[in-house]
Design brief:
With 381 residues, this protein is an alpha/beta fold. The chain folds into three domains: 66 residues, DNA polymerase, domain 1; 195 residues, Rossmann fold; 57 residues, Winged helix-like DNA-binding domain superfamily/Winged helix DNA-binding domain (Arc Repressor Mutant, subunit A). Helix content is 41%, strand content 13%. It has 17 helices and twelve strands.
């Protein structure tokens, strides 16, 4: 993209009062942004309102600084990691977003050279709580890895909790192979990483995936931008898997948008006592597919060349071989949160012996402590 063309797209996207809908009408009527800004006021008023036409007649505040910042950012790409701006008229614009009611005018893309957003035909979004239970985090990473092994890129939001675990699982599955492992859709400009503790994860994604935003460089993490981000997660993927979610979770917004776009919604059930499971249970009641293994997702999609997927293990609340199912304490614990008093009543063990064995199981990664003095079994990956 030449600097003049970039300047035109930035001016159109940053002009106050010109939303995506008005911008699309202008593009349809006049062509590329440079031609829009060459039109007289009367011609513009035939397409947009008087106030919008007036706004288009003068450059928005800070435009030149934004052009300079974006141009410099684009030039900083290299042979391994490329930086791109994909506009509504580009051949590289993902077709799935064009089916949305409000596709963004511009997408900023940072990631491995050779990858692009047209490679997401069979991707699955994995979303969920920023504060998952230990089992929820394990499930997210395990499903991310299993989807990756089946050849499906994982789309998520780089947030703490489920998002980060799903990205990590997808990257683990890719190993050293040069293939698109995962896509992170973020709610900030691409010149910053949010949350900051995911800086290393973001770096891994740029080497084996893509980070995407519709927001201009320099945009901080503003609350109102994250629901907008969620619609892109839903739009890019073929379906959405919700791992854990409270009833007021933003993940349910992503699930609703996925359903409204005519795509599949999947949900992992959990404990009836866990607030983090209630959103998933609500989705299942509303028609989302209950998921226990990655095969439950793959059977709803067109056939893929992934022989390993058919034997992929279950990662929900079932035991695995590594969890030593013969252990009497694990059998007594089951897969519901339980207190030491409850375990003592089930096993008849004394408090000292019980606490010692629980500590061993915790150190071995078979159980986790939950708030309120509860313990929960963790299915091994």
């Amino acid at each position: 993209m030449e600097r003049a063309e970039l300047a035109g797209w930035l001016r159109l996207s940053l002009t106050p009062g010109i939303g995506d809908g008005a911008a699309r009408r202008l593009l349809s009527a006049f062509g590329l942004p440079e031609r829009i800004f060459a039109q007289p006021d009367a011609a513009l008023r035939e397409v947009v309102s008087h106030a919008q036409a007036e706004a288009l007649m003068q450059p928005p505040a800070g435009l030149q600084a934004q052009i300079d910042l974006t141009w410099q950012w684009l030039q900083a790409g290299d042979d391994r990691v490329s930086r791109r701006v994909v506009t509504l008229g580009d051949a590289g614009y993902p077709a799935s977003l064009l089916e949305m009611a409000d596709p963004p005018l511009m997408l900023y893309v940072l990631g491995a050279a050779g990858f692009d957003l047209t490679q997401l035909g069979h991707s699955i979004a994995v979303v969920g709580s920023r504060n998952p239970t230990p089992q929820g985090a394990t499930n997210a990473r395990s499903f991310g890895r299993a989807l990756g092994e089946a050849g499906l890129p994982v789309v998520s939001g780089l947030a703490l909790g489920v998002d980060g675990a799903a990205h990590t699982g997808a990257l683990d599955a890719a190993g050293d192979a040069h293939r698109l492992a995962t896509v992170a859709v973020v709610g900030t400009g691409l010149d910053r990483v949010y949350p900051a503790r995911h800086r290393d994860l973001a770096h891994r994604i740029t080497l084996q995936g893509l980070i995407v935003s519709e927001l201009p460089l320099g945009t901080p993490p503003l609350t109102q931008n994250f629901p907008k981000r969620n619609r892109l997660i839903a739009g890019l993927a073929r379906g959405t898997l919700v791992v854990e979610a409270a009833l007021q979770s933003g993940s349910l917004i992503t699930a609703r948008l996925t359903s409204e776009q005519g795509k599949e919604v999947f949900a992992i059930p959990g404990s009836i006592h866990s607030p983090q499971s209630r959103g998933c249970h609500a989705l299942i009641r509303q028609g989302a597919k209950l998921v226990e293994s990655v095969s439950d997702i793959l059977e709803e999609l067109p056939p893929l060349h992934a022989p390993r997927a058919a034997s992929a293990p279950s990662f929900s609340n079932g035991a695995s071989a590594a969890s030593s199912p013969e252990d009497p304490l694990l059998e007594a614990l089951g897969f519901e949160p339980a207190s030491l008093d409850a375990l003592g009543a089930r096993t008849g063990w004394g408090a000292a012996a019980l606490q010692a064995r629980m500590l061993e199981l915790e150190l071995d990664g078979h159980i986790s402590r939950l708030p309120g003095g509860l313990f929960q079994r963790v299915a091994s990956t």
